[in-house]
Amino acid sequence: MRKNTVTLRNSMWRSFVLFTVIIFVMLWVFQIMLFNAYYVTMKKEEISQMGEKITLNFKEASKKEFGLHNFDSNLERHYFQAGKVAFEGGVTMHMFDAEGEIISRDEMGKFHGERRINPNEVATVKSKIKKGEINKPFTLKDGNFRTNVIANIASLDFCGERIYFYIKTPMIPMDTTVKVLRNQLIMCTITSLIIAFIASYLLSNRIVKPIKNMTNSAKVLATGNYNVEFEGARYKEICELSDALNYAATELSKTDTLRRDLMANVSHDLKTPLTIIKSYAEMIRDLSGDNPEKRTVHTQVIIDETDRLTDLVSDILDLSKLESGTVSMKKENFDFSKTVYSILDNFKILEENEGYVFKTDIEDGLIVLGNERKISQVIYNLINNAVNYTGEDKIIAVKVSKNEDKVRFEVTDTGVGIDEKDIDKVWERYYKSSRTHKRLTKGTGIGLSIVKNILTEHESSFGVISKKGEGSTFWFEL
C-alpha cells in the first residue's frame, strides 16, 4: 500500500491559509486594482439615471400644461424645476437646442447663449448632438476647473421642439481613499493570516487527536485484543466513526469466539466418531471377528458413526456454501403440503421403533414459491431439532396452514423450552455450547444455522416461540 505523507494537520493548515489568501487577493483586486474602474462605472450609471429623471420631469410637466404657453414661457416655467432636480442630484445642468446651441436664462428673463460654460465643452456637446450620441455617458476635462467630469446628454420633445440636457458631475480624486484602503488591507491580511495559522492549529489538533487515538486503538485491535475501546470527540462524524469501530470490535470478538468454539466443537464431534470407529474396528479385529453376532453389532456401530460423520461434514459444507453465497437458489412453485408429508415419512421409523408421536395438522394443496430442495432441508432440520429436544412424552406437533397470502409452517416440541435471553442465539452454530459443548446424540449442532441462512436467502420471516419449561415452537412463512 502506498503511504500517504500528507497529514491532516498540514492539509488543514494549507486549506486555511489558502482560503485566507484567496479572500484577500479578491479584496485587493476589487478594492484596489479595480476601484477606479468601478467608481467611473458607478458615476456613469448615476449620471444616466439623472438624465432620465430630468427628462421625465419635463415630460410630465409638458403633458399638464401643453398649449397654455409658448415655447419660451413653457421652457422658463420648467427650467427652475429641472435645475432643482439637478441640484438635488449633485449635478450641473445646461440645455441645448437642436442646433447644439446652449439655452439658458439671464437676469432679464430672456434666453441667450450661456457664456459660463467652456467653449470646448460646448463644441464637444454640439458634436455629440450632431452625431446622435444621446444617453451615452462620457468623460472629459471641465473647462473652468480643469478637473475630470462625467457627463451625459439626454433629450426630449418639448412643445414641439427638440431640446437637449447636458448634465455633468465632477469625478472626485480617489488616490487618498485608495491609499487608506490599501493600508487597511495590508493590516487585515497580516492579521487574518496569523488568525488562520492559530485557528488551523487549534482545530486540527481537536480533530487529529481523537483520530490518532483511534488509530492506536485499531493497532491494538489488530493484535487480537478485542477489549480495546475507541473514543470519539465532540464532532458527530468522529463519534459515528468511533461507534462503528466499537461495534466492529464487538462483532470481531463475537466472531473470534464463535470461530474458536466452532473449531473446538467440530473437532470434538469429528474426533468422537473417529475414536469410536477405531475402537470398534479393533474389537472386530481382536475379539469379535469370529463371532458373527458380536461382529454384526460392532459393524453397525461403525456404520452409524460413519453416517453421523458424513452428516456433520455435509452440514458444514452446506453452511459454508450458504454463508459464502455460492449456493444457487433457483425458485419455482411446488406443493408445500406434499413436501411436508414426504419428509414426515422419513421419521416414521421413530414412531415404530422409539415411540415418538407426530401430531399433524396440515392443509392440503398449499403452493409456495421457493427452492424445493432447500426448503425440504429446512423442514427436515426443524423436525429433527424437535425430535432431539422434545420431552419424555416424545410428542412433536407439525402444523401447516394458510396465513393470509402466505403459508405458515410450525413444529412444536414438549421439551424444557428456551430462556428468553437465549432465543435469539438458537440460530447460531452450537448456540448451547460456549464452554460446555456436549456431543449431541442426534444431529450435528449446526442445523438451525443452516435453516436461518436458507430462509434469509428466501426473504422469509421466521422465529421461535418458547418459554422455559413449556416447550418450543419453531415457525417460518413462505
Main sheet characteristics = 6 strands, antiparallel
One letter per element, helices H and strands E, the order comes to HHHEEEHEEEHHHEHHEEHEEHEE
Query: CATH homologous superfamily of the largest domain, by name?
Result: Histidine kinase-like ATPase, C-terminal domain
Task: Work out the number of β strands.
Answer: 13
Category from helices, strands and their pairing: alpha+beta
Shape: elongated
* Helical proportion, percent range: 55-70%
In terms of topology, how is this protein built?
Layout: H1 8-33, H2 35-65, H3 71-88, E1 92-96, E2 102-105, E3 111-112, H4 119-131, E4 138-141, E5 148-158, E6 161-170, H5 175-222, H6 236-288, H7 292-324, E7 332-335, H8 336-345, H9 348-354, E8 357-362, E9 367-370, H10 372-389, E10 395-403, E11 406-413, H11 447-457, E12 461-466, E13 472-477
Parallel strand pairs: 8-10
Antiparallel strand pairs: 1-2, 1-6, 2-3, 4-5, 5-6, 7-9, 10-11, 11-13, 12-13
What descriptors fit this protein?
478 residues; alpha+beta; Beta-Lactamase; Helix Hairpins; Heat Shock Protein 90; 3 domains; five-stranded mixed sheet; 11 helices; 13 strands; 56% helix
Walk me through what this model shows.
It is built from eleven helices and 13 strands. With 478 residues, it is α+β, with helices and mostly antiparallel strands. It folds into three domains: 34-172, Beta-Lactamase (2-Layer Sandwich); 224-327, Signal transduction histidine kinase, dimerisation/phosphotransfer (DHp) domain (Helix Hairpins); 328-477, Heat Shock Protein 90. α1 crosses α2 (35-65), α6 (236-288) runs antiparallel to α7 (292-324) and α8 packs across α10 (372-389). Residues 105-115 and 433-442 have low confidence and may be disordered.
